[in-house]
Amino acid sequence: MSSEFFLDEKWIKKLDRQTRVISDRIGLDRKTLDEVFDKSTLLSLGKLISDKVIEYLDFPVSTGKEANIFRGVTPDKKFVAIKIYRTSNLTFKHISKYIEGDPRFICTNKTRRGIIYEWAKKEFKNLERLKKAKVRVPAPIKKINNILIMEYIGDSEKSAPLLKDVELKDPKKILDELLTFISRMYERAKLVHADLSAYNVLMYKDKPYVIDVGQGVLLEHPSSLEFLKRDIHNVVQYFSKFGIKEDEKEIFERIIKK
Ligand SMILES: Nc1ncnc2c1ncn2[C@@H]1O[C@H](COP(=O)(O)OP(=O)(O)O)[C@@H](O)[C@H]1O
Ligand SMILES: [Mg+2]
């Protein structure tokens, strides 16, 4: 037996124990557990640990349809967010329409797993572009296979709440900031988020952070303008409950004319 193989097996056992503890904590059933932490995902986590990107998985933050998010701890005791895309069928069906037609990703002749890896790469690349365009997003840290490591938004007690769950001191200010972000995405990053709403914005220290940027598309995507319209609508609509009125059409025209 080669030493490498031995190391892999050791990591698998260690991670297997760790994931069991985590799944007990969140009450994950065996099926979900197997779906998220299949052998290759455990190996990727093992690599992240041996590369000292993370030391361990600390806390489950969210169990979504496509991905599970954990808080992780680095060897120097800082928090990171760990997004693990599931490699199951469900995920695959949903994502293909956003990835097709994006010249950055080659999805022909790829296995389902290969496409999921491309998808995680897409979220990572979108985060990089958005960060550069000065849109407030979690800083991307590392991507390996179906796992994305990024800046953790929150403190030692809990992760930052979603926009939809917080009381806002100054809603107009937050709306203006989000509209500025939409505009910067379009103008500077040449991207449309395509799933922007009060469900994909975290509020931390009174500041909005845009998250979940995996389905973001380049402007050349055939539906990019339709997605842009929808993003503007979701955001403007949410703030109308605070009595703030904005002209969606006018915002849309202003952004695309830039
Ligand atoms: N960087 C982050 N820091 C803290 N919490 C996060 C971070 N990214 C995501 N979360 C939490 O995990 C949840 C799910 O993440 P998201 O990227 O929206 O995935 P999905 O909606 O596809 O499940 C979010 O609603 C948020 O509560
Ligand atoms: Mg989300």
Verbal overview:
By secondary structure, the protein is an alpha+beta fold. It has 2 domains: 7-151, Phosphorylase Kinase, domain 1, CATH 3.30.200.20; 163-257, Transferase(Phosphotransferase) domain 1 (Transferase(Phosphotransferase), domain 1, Orthogonal Bundle). It has helices spanning 3-26, 30-36, 39-50, 89-99, 112-132, 171-187, 224-239, 248-257, and strands at residues 56-63, 67-73, 79-85, 140-144, 147-151, 191-192, 201-204, 207-210, 217-218. A 5-stranded antiparallel beta sheet has the order 1-2-3-5-4, with helices on both faces. It has a two-stranded antiparallel ribbon with strand order 6-9. Strand 2 (67-73) and strand 3 form a beta hairpin. The longest helix is centred in the first third of the chain and has 24 residues, at 3-26. The radius of gyration is 19 Å and the shape is globular.
Name some characteristics of this structure.
258 residues; alpha+beta; Phosphorylase Kinase, domain 1; Transferase(Phosphotransferase), domain 1; 5-stranded antiparallel beta sheet; two-stranded antiparallel ribbon; 8 helices; 9 strands; 46% helix; 17% strand; globular; disordered N terminus; binds adenosine-5'-diphosphate; binds magnesium ion
Topology:
Blueprint lengths: L2 H24 L3 H7 L2 H12 L5 E8 L3 E7 L5 E7 L3 H11 L12 H21 L7 E5 L2 E5 L19 H17 L3 E2 L8 E4 L2 E4 L6 E2 L5 H16 L8 H10 L1
Antiparallel strand pairs: 1-2, 2-3, 3-5, 4-5, 6-9, 7-8
Bound molecules: adenosine-5'-diphosphate (ADP) and magnesium ion.
Magnesium ion binds next to loops.
